[in-house]
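Practice problem 4.
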């Protein structure tokens, strides 16, 4: 009712009576259809009819259902009404009325949904087109047909099947010279070809009649309406492979006849679309790009060359700078498809367009369009992947840097799909030919890789959504894990490409570093720094990510990439390969790799993974064997043998640990290839056990190794040294206390060992291995002496690494040495073989209840040995050096000062006599003896030191020997006797100090050439820091004694010229010698060796005291040299608290004492005091506190305290903190450095 009321209210009032024909009985006046017809007849003017149609259209839009009910009441009247509307459409020329009629007709037809009505309208259209003399008047009818088919798609099939002759009229419309008519025909054709059935029926019509004409119309279209409708028709055609082939074949014919005389009209689709791309209309550009994409989708390899020859990629690259996201997206899409054709790259389109791609990618990443981001990254990745290596893509490092930064921004996207595409692009970007523009941007590459790895780490650490249990939640969880695995795999592939890039650049000297780096600047853009970053990133990010993912799922392709990365790092960072291999082995990577081979490669599948696993184990095994910690490095011949059986055996290992143990235990005849596989299995178990990865049962492995050795003996084979070493080590480690080897196995081991030139080739320093050799008499009697000799040798080298004292309450001896004492006490027959035949000495040694008693027994044994071999020490079988070494090692680790008893004094006398009978060549006896003598002079009580010095000074032969050894310094600085030279200089300094302080009697003077001493110190050797420190200690003692020692005679090297008058006061030194010595001391200080620095500062203090007492001007001249300031600041460059090192504090105290303001100003003194006042003094060592107290008191005495509050604070802190209350643990005073016993207090003070 409302709709009817509204409709009638808007109708115009009739001015005359309707015709009599409408008043027949079958047209009741009360029906709405009568009213409609009445209105059309009583409205003679067009304006009123237009108004009526507008009202009717509004009613249809607002009250469609009610109006349709009214209209559909009488089918005849409805059909007649539609016919009247169609008649009006055909007869009127007003465009707005035509549009209104078409709109009402379409609405009525679609909403009535009456087939009869549709047929009626189609018949009217067909009739009109057939009866129309000129195509000019067919525009409205054609437009109606097009929109009708658009509104009712099934009509396309009906129109083609039932009104086939209509196509001829449409063809006439295409050739009619009116673009409006052509546009309507193209629109209708587009709707007809949108139906697959109609398109198939019209395929012959298009191929025979339409194709050239269509291309010609598209090429010559002037109005946008015709262009749009042609492109719409083209888009429908391009859905079908048939029409694509027809159009492209026609285009190829047109291109082939181009330039040949003939009839015009041939047109090429690529050229037409190129023209549209060049238009300034964005709609046409988008449509053109869309059509190019539609063609290429069918077959890029077949159709892309035509577009490439038309230079379309060039214009697509230019459109990437458009502000239209749609146009940029379609351009990306086209270029991706074109990139599948090699011609796209060979014509250098990518070189021209890569800069546009990078800029477009940078711009698109600022937009909020995820699809655009993904498409742009996909294009970039395709170009980077497919670009031929011989055609350089990035012509400058700047362009390469911009590309890397764009990828870095993309990989940081919060959208996972975008980040995933960015990772793939990064992987393609890390190619040598892409990064070869010098200088290589290693810093940018590092930032890019860090961004990629951090993005992957963030994603891998995102917690999975935990829903209630069920199949759906499990499926979602599996999908999430799979998605993480794919992202991690892409990341690892990118990282692997970075590793491959680093390996390839190793052979390019020009790529090792940035040639434009300023001299002296920190070189970060170097291949070495980049390679070390790769190792660090793999260690801190890649390995943890892969391990976390493998706990949820293990993917063979992912593990293949991961292991190939680890394998490549051995080559990339060769100086770290041993350390990296040890870390991997201790992290169970041997077990992991073997499990991967057993799980995925057992049935000849995943051959690539098997090869990567084998290569990784091969290199890691050789790295571990090349840098052992507790055994001698293997020879090149041994490594070659290992390399041979690893190469053949590792690919064949595909079984799990129980099967491998069973294979190792096989006692049947083993052929060559199978034996090599056994060697590999044994070696892998050995390397795993060495690095605490015991993934097989010790008991089962113990049995398997015994069977393996017996099999070797049965077949009379001689295994490689590495196999023998591994077998013995595994037996020693896996042997239980109650289990013992069969005699046959022991005999086999002895047989193998007897075939070895020296036991050190298979020796491993481990307490259980020592116990293994000493447990079986057959092995002990044959190899016990040599094993213990090797044991002491390794123990001595291990003491050199002990720089810190043991914690309170613990024994200063390591657990390994304690184990040795236990074995010696429990097995007296060992001493019978090693030391002496006297069972009384063995009993005495066994009676020791604690370490002091044990040391006393060792002293007693040594005394008897000296009595036995004292006449000819060189004739000793080796027991004497061995026991001397043991004694020196034990004594050096004793912190407390000891009183020498009568037995010790006799022993000291005998050792000194022994030394006197030796020559400088007897290093194996002299070195431990000198260490023992030096310990007696420094690690005993003062009274014992004086008595010991008197005993040693009484040995004329010892002093003469010492003089001979000191003379060797000038010729053998880098000789193997350097350690002995160090001990000799330290002993000489100690003898001189003890003699001078105690006024001891001198029986033999010690002559030293002063010129040679000064020369050695003025031109020191870089690798002789300890020797320089020892000589400095000797010179300091001489300076403190003012060269007046009764023991030491400093003689000239040869004829010396008379001293100058100004040098008389400095005699025996000259001014030039003083200055040269000072420069030498400065050079030694710059080396920043702690021990050497102590010795240099102490010697400089003694030198300045000596100069100040004889020539204060020269002393002040030496202190005021500008180089001293540079030296001081060089030493202070080690960190914020470097001024709190004792040697630097003593050096500054020296400068303050001699008032050298040019070196250390008053303000700088204040800064030092202020820094000391702010420091936590309780953490400082006693030596540092003593040096700081001396510096403070010196500053106070010189009146240089500028800030009284700071001075007061520091004074209170120092007074309240005695040396005994310092929390810093006091270091050991006596150390063994390079086999030399050194007292820190002797060097320092």
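Answer key:
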């Amino acid at each position: 009712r409302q709709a009817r009321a509204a409709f009638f209210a808007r109708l115009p009032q009739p001015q005359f009576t309707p015709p009599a024909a409408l008043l027949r009985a079958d047209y009741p006046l009360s029906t709405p259809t009568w009213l409609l017809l009445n209105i059309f007849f009583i409205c003679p003017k067009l304006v009123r009819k237009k108004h009526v149609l507008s009202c009717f259209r509004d009613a249809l839009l607002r009250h469609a259902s009610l109006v349709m009910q009214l209209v559909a009441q009488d089918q005849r009247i409805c059909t007649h009404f539609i016919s009247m509307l169609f008649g009006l459409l055909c007869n009127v020329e007003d465009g707005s009325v035509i549009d209104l009629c078409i709109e009402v007709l379409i609405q009525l037809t679609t909403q009535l949904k009456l087939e009869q009505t549709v047929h009626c309208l189609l018949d009217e259209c067909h009739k009109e087109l057939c009866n129309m003399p000129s195509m000019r008047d067919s525009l409205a009818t054609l437009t109606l047909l097009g929109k009708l088919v658009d509104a009712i798609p099934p009509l396309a099939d009906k129109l083609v099947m039932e009104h086939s002759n209509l196509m001829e009229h449409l063809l006439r419309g295409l050739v009619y010279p009116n673009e409006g008519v052509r546009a309507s025909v193209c629109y209708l054709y587009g709707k007809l070809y949108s139906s697959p059935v109609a398109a198939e029926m019209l395929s012959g019509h298009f191929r025979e009649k339409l194709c050239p004409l269509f291309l010609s119309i598209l090429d010559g279209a002037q109005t946008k309406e015709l262009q749009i409708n042609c492109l719409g028709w083209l888009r429908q055609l391009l859905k079908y492979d048939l029409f694509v082939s027809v159009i492209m074949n026609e285009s190829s014919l047109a291109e082939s006849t181009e330039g040949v005389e003939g009839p015009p009209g041939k047109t090429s689709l690529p050229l037409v679309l190129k023209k549209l791309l060049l238009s300034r209309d964005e709609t046409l550009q988008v449509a053109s790009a869309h059509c190019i994409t539609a063609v290429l989708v069918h077959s890029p390899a077949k159709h892309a060359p035509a577009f490439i020859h038309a230079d379309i990629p060039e214009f697509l690259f230019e459109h990437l700078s458009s502000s239209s996201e749609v146009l940029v997206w379609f351009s990306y899409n086209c270029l991706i498809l074109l990139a599948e054709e090699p011609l796209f790259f060979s014509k250098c389109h990518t070189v021209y367009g890569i800069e546009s791609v990078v800029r477009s990618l940078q711009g698109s990443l600022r937009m909020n369009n995820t699809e655009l981001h993904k498409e742009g990254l996909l294009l970039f990745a395709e170009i980077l992947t497919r670009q031929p290596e011989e055609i350089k893509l990035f012509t400058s490092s700047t362009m390469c840097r911009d590309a890397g930064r764009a990828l870095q921004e993309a990989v940081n996207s919060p959208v996972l799909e975008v980040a995933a595409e960015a990772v793939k692009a990064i992987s393609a970007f890390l190619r040598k030919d892409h990064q070869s523009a010098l200088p290589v941007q290693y810093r940018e590459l590092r930032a890019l890789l860090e961004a990629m790895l951090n993005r992957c780490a963030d994603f891998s650490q995102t917690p999975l959504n935990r829903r209630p249990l069920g199949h759906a939640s499990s499926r979602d969880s599996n999908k999430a894990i799979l998605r993480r695995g794919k992202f991690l795999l892409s990341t690892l592939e990118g990282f692997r490409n970075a590793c491959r890039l680093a390996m390839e650049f190793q052979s390019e000297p020009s790529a090792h570093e940035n040639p434009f780096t300023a001299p002296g600047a920190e070189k970060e853009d170097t291949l070495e720094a980049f390679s070390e970053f790769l190792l660090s990133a793999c260690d801190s990010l890649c390995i943890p990510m892969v391990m976390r993912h493998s706990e949820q799922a293990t993917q063979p392709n992912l593990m293949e990439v991961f292991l190939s990365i680890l394998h490549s790092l051995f080559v990339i960072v060769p100086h770290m390969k041993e350390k990296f291999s040890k870390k991997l082995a201790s992290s169970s990577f041997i077990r992991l790799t073997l499990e991967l081979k057993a799980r995925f490669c057992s049935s000849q599948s995943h051959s690539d993974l098997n090869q990567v696993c084998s290569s990784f184990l091969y290199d890691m095994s050789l790295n571990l064997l090349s840098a052992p910690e507790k055994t001698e490095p293997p020879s090149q011949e041994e490594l070659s043998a290992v390399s041979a059986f690893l190469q053949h055996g590792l690919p064949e290992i595909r079984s799990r640990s129980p099967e491998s143990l069973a294979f190792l235990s096989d006692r049947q005849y083993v052929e060559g290839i199978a034996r090599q596989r056994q060697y590999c299995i044994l070696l892998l178990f050995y390397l795993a056990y060495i690095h605490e990865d015991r993934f097989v049962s010790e008991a089962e492995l113990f049995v398997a190794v015994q069977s393996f050795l017996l099999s070797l003996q049965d077949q009379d084979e001689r295994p490689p040294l590495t196999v023998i070493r591994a077998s013995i080590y595994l037996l020693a480690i896996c042997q239980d206390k109650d289990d013992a080897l069969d005699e046959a196995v022991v005999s086999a081991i002895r047989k193998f060992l007897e075939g070895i030139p020296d036991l050190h080739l298979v020796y491993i320093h481990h307490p259980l291995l020592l116990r293994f050799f000493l447990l079986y008499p057959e092995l002990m009697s044959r190899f016990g002496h040599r094993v213990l000799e090797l044991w002491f040798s390794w123990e001595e080298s291990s003491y050199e690494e002990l720089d810190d004292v043991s914690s309170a309450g613990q024994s200063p001896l390591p657990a390994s040495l304690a184990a040795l004492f236990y074995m010696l006490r429990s097995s007296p027959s060992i001493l019978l073989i090693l030391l002496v035949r006297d069972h009384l000495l063995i009993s005495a040694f066994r009676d020791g209840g604690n370490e002091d008693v044990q040391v006393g027994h060792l002293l007693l044994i040594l005394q008897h040995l000296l009595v036995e071999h004292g006449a000819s020490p060189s004739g000793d079988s080796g027991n004497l050096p061995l026991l001397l070494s043991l004694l020196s090692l034990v004594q050096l680790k004793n912190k407390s000062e000891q009183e020498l008893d009568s037995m010790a004094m006799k022993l000291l006398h005998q050792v000194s006599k022994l030394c006197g009978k030796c020559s400088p060549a007897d290093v194996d006896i002299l070195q431990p003896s000198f260490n023992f003598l030096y310990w007696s002079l420094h690690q005993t009580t003062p009274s014992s030191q004086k008595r010991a010095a008197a005993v040693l000074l009484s040995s004329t032969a010892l002093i003469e020997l010492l003089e001979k050894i000191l003379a060797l310094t000038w010729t053998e600085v880098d000789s193997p006797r350097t350690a002995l030279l160090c001990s000799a200089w330290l002993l000489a300094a100690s003898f001189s100090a003890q003699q001078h302080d105690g006024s001891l009697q001198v029986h033999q003077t010690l002559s030293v050439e002063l010129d040679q001493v000064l020369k050695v110190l003025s031109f020191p050797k870089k690798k002789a820091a300890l020797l320089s420190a020892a000589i400095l200690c000797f010179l300091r003692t001489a300076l403190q004694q003012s060269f007046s020692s009764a023991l030491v005679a400093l003689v000239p090297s040869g004829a010396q010229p008379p001293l100058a008058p100004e040098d008389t006061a400095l005699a025996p030194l000259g001014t030039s010698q003083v200055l040269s010595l000072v420069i030498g001391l400065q050079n030694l200080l710059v080396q920043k060796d702690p021990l050497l620095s102590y010795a240099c500062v102490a010697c400089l203090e003694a030198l300045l005291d000596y100069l100040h007492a004889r020539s204060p001007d020269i002393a002040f001249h030496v202190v005021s040299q500008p180089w001293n300031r540079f030296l001081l600041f060089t030493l202070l460059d080690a960190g914020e608290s470097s001024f709190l090192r004792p040697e630097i504090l003593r050096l500054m105290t020296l400068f303050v004492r001699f008032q050298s303001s040019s070196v250390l100003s008053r303000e700088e003194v204040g800064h030092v005091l202020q820094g000391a006042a702010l420091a936590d003094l309780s953490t400082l060592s006693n030596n540092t506190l003593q040096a700081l107290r001396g510096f403070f008191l010196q500053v106070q005495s010189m009146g240089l305290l500028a800030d009284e509050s700071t001075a007061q604070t520091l004074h209170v802190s120092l007074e309240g903190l005695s040396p005994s209350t310092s929390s810093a643990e006091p270091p050991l005073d006596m150390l063994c450095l390079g086999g030399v016993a050194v007292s820190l207090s002797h060097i320092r003070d």
